[in-house]
User: What shape does this take?
Amino acid sequence: MPELPEVETTRRGLTPHVIGRRIVEIVRRRADLRFPIPAQIDQLIGEPVLALRRRAKYLLLDSTRGSALLHLGMSGSLRIVSADAPVRTHDHVDLVLASGQAIRFHDPRRFGCLLWQPLRVVHPLLATLGPEPLEEAFDASYLAARFAGRSAQIKTALMDQRIVVGVGNIYASEALYRAGIDPRRAAGRVSRARLELLVDAVKEILAWAIGQGGTTLRDFVDPAGTPGYFAQSLKVYERAGEACLTAGCGGTIERAVLGQRASYFCRRCQR
DNA sequence: ATGGTCCCCTGACCGC
DNA sequence: TGCGGTCAGGGGACCA
Assistant: This one.
């Protein structure tokens, strides 16, 4: 489910409810999600939340003792609820705040995680991440250098979080469509001019999607329970068999499986 | 290093 | 109504 825009939407929704608030209790309704939930997260108890940051698709909830690290996986969401609100199936963890509210971690498939990052330590899962796509370090020169000589399909490479973070299956297809690049093309065989278009497309699409509150296809909701509205802006994702939306193209959107993930493109518009 | 595959898990949907 | 197969916003682990 959540790619960068959805995680950022989650961060923004949570921020006003958590900053400066003390965590008074952590309720675990199961011992693990994707990974065991480490006992160290209890160090948060009694601590005020200093900041809520996003790195890639991770959220970091900072305290003076360290940071809780949350990933939403495919089906995770975080809601702000009254701490005594009825618990639904798959509500796995509550971070209860002194305000009487709680951050409730809901994740049917349990591909998400809740981990602990001690002070002045970069968690191993964060250590190899590439640059943030919305920062200046992510530009065509950088991408050209990382893609040089690579035979992997460009869509797979664009989703490789070691190259650039935050781009998942929806936005990879959408950005490649907008840049006119065939997702099956070898990453190292894309022209510099097209990489420029791709970088611009990635930045524009992610920024616009954040403004729309992310994409809700099935189950994503922000911390207030509101879906995102970017789905109506999708040009190719899950549109196999439908007409290409490029004026005058007349082609049909195709679906192909690349790197085990469904991919959507127009072979007339994307080379 | 790089590329490819498998798998974690639940729920929704579709055809029989 | 039930059953099996397919698919889903991610990514770690393991293989050649």
About this structure: The mean pLDDT of chain A is 97. Strands of chain A lie at 23-28, 51-55, 58-62, 66-71, 77-82, 91-97, 101-106, 113-118, 254-258, 261-265. Residues 34, 73-75, 90, 107-111, 150-152, 156, 218-219, 259-260 of chain A lie near DNA strand B (CB under 10 Å from a C1').
